[in-house]
Structure formats: structure tokens, C-alpha cells
Design goal:
This protein is an alpha+beta fold and 292 residues long. The chain is 26% helix and 28% strand. It has a seven-stranded mixed sheet. Strands 3, 10, 11 and 12 form a four-stranded antiparallel sheet that branches. Strands 1-2 form a two-stranded antiparallel sheet.
């Protein structure tokens, strides 16, 4: 029989790359926010700094009057620190090492799928706890919206443009199943005959590109926390830079429980993460809900 270290090496060989790929493709919010520092995190407590240079005001001078001089401005920056202060863990306990070995085949990935889902769900739910749109004028939260239709999407598009979201990155609109159903029954939004084009596949979905947004259905429990009642009719519209996510590599480990005076083995996967709203992040995302 192989030793725990031998089996651990097999787990890394067969699962690590697949795990990272599936996590990236199967999640929505974690896969769409800014992830420039993915894989660079090595230990808990690491800190990533994101700095934004604020735009200069500039000035206009009259030739012949005061155009021979100018007034320099002090450099103004915004800096945020993203601390790796969370560890996501999923694990199973087995009575026999053979139970783990029987699951290593690529044709039989039940354990892999379950561990992947657990980590994926925890990460997605955590990022939704950080959603905190601006409440100052203009308010980036909209309540009492019973039907997410063309008029509603247009109103959010105007709000995003007025907040000066740049167009260097795509904008996203995540809708819970009820709101997404509203979109599908709105003829103008659902039909490409009215100018919309279906965008690339994201997390297994063909996104609907309408009014500058890539519209996707999010059926996770996380999006429901946008609602004051944790119920249906929820939407999150955002620029990817509204939030920054830093992640380490997923790490698999198999341990013998004998030092604890127990028989059996523990298989775990863990990943270090940190996340925070970006510079002006509160103004780079919008929430919509039905509950007031």
C-alpha cells in the first residue's frame, strides 16, 4: 500500500491544476472581480497594496495675459491595503487510506467535485459580505424594484456612466433567478433583433450583452444577501475594479490521525485569500432589490 506522502503526491498530480481551473470557471463573482495578484500569496498576513493616482485638475491660461506661468499641483493618490486574513478549508475524514486511493481516478471525481464546491461557495459568500455600495448622492442602491426590465437596466446604466466607470474593462450585471427571468421575458432585452449581441461564455453561461453590461444569472445564496430580507429579486452591477481579490494556490494535504490516538486519515484542501473594495469601490458597484 502507498504511504500517505505517496498518495498526497498523487492528489497533487491529478487534482491541483484541475481544482484551480474549475474554481476559476465555475464561480461568478470571484471570477469577475479584479484578481491581478492571484497565485502570488505565499503566507497568511501577506499584504498587497493597490495605489491609484488621482487625476490632476489642470488649468487653462489666457495667452498674452497669464499663460507664461502655471501652478503645479501636489500629487494625490489613494492607497488600499489588502491583507491575506482568511483561509478557506474543506476536508474529509477517512477510515482507510484505500478509500482515498479509490477516488484518485479522473473518471471518478466525486470527492474533488465536493471539495471544490465547498471552497467555491465559501469564497463566493465571503465576497458578497463585502458588497457595500455608496449611499451618498447619487445613491448606488435601488430598492422596491419588482421587475428588472429594460427601463431598470437603462436607469442603472445612466448611474454607472455618471459615476464615470471606465470602459477599459467589461461591466457586469449579476441577477438572481427571479430578476433574470424578468430579463428573459422582456422582449427587447432578450431578443438580439433589438441590437443585443450574445457575449462569450462565462462560467458555463452565454452572457447577454445589453446596454454595456454582460448580464449573467447568479443562483448562489450569496447574491440573496443583497436583499434586506435575504429573499429573491436581487441584482449586483459592477465594474471589475470595485473589488480586489488576492489568492494563494490551493493546497492539498493528507494526514495520518494516529498521533492523535485515532485511526484514519484526513484529506484537506485550503487556500489563503484576502479581499477588499478597490479605490472608489463603493461607487463602482450598484445593488438592486425588491425589498425596501
Amino acid at each position: 500500500m502507498d504511504s500517505p506522502s505517496d498518495v498526497a503526491n498523487q492528489v497533487k498530480k491529478f487534482w491541483s491544476d484541475i481544482f484551480e481551473k474549475e474554481l476559476r470557471e465555475d464561480t461568478l463573482l470571484p471570477g469577475l472581480v479584479s484578481r491581478n495578484y492571484e497565485g502570488e500569496i505565499k503566507q497568511k498576513g501577506d499584504t498587497v497594496y493597490v495605489t491609484q493616482v488621482n487625476a490632476a485638475n489642470g488649468e487653462i491660461r489666457d495667452i498674452g495675459t497669464d499663460s507664461d506661468s502655471f501652478t503645479p499641483e501636489a500629487l494625490s493618490v489613494q492607497r488600499i491595503a489588502i491583507v491575506v486574513n482568511k483561509r478557506i478549508v474543506a476536508s474529509y475524514e477517512f477510515e482507510d487510506l484505500m478509500d482515498i486511493q479509490t477516488q484518485l481516478s479522473k473518471d471518478n471525481p466525486e470527492i474533488l467535485a465536493s471539495l471544490k464546491f465547498a471552497v467555491e461557495k465559501q469564497l463566493n459568500d465571503y465576497l458578497y459580505t463585502l458588497v457595500a455600495p455608496s449611499s451618498s448622492a447619487p445613491d448606488h442602491t435601488t430598492a422596491s424594484v419588482t421587475d428588472f426590465n429594460l427601463a431598470q437596466l437603462s436607469a442603472q446604466r445612466i448611474l454607472a456612466a455618471q459615476a464615470k466607470w471606465n470602459k477599459l474593462k467589461p461591466w457586469y450585471c449579476l441577477l438572481d433567478p427571479v430578476y433574470y427571468g424578468d430579463v428573459l421575458t422582456d422582449t427587447t432585452l432578450a431578443s438580439t433583433d433589438f441590437g443585443g449581441n450574445d457575449a462569450p461564455i462565462i462560467a458555463g453561461q452565454i452572457s447577454l450583452r445589453r446596454m454595456g453590461f454582460n448580464i449573467l444569472e447568479d443562483n448562489s445564496d450569496g447574491i440573496l444577501t443583497i436583499s434586506s430580507a435575504d429573499s429573491a429579486d436581487c441584482a449586483l452591477l459592477f465594474h471589475p475594479d470595485f473589488m480586489h481579490l488576492v489568492m494563494g494556490e490551493p493546497r492539498f494535504k493528507i494526514s495520518d490521525l494516529h498521533p492523535n490516538k485515532q485511526f484514519g486519515y484526513v484529506l484537506s484542501v485550503d487556500m489563503l485569500i484576502g479581499a477588499a473594495l478597490g479605490n472608489d469601490g463603493a461607487k463602482k458597484h450598484i445593488t438592486v432589490q425588491n425589498n425596501a
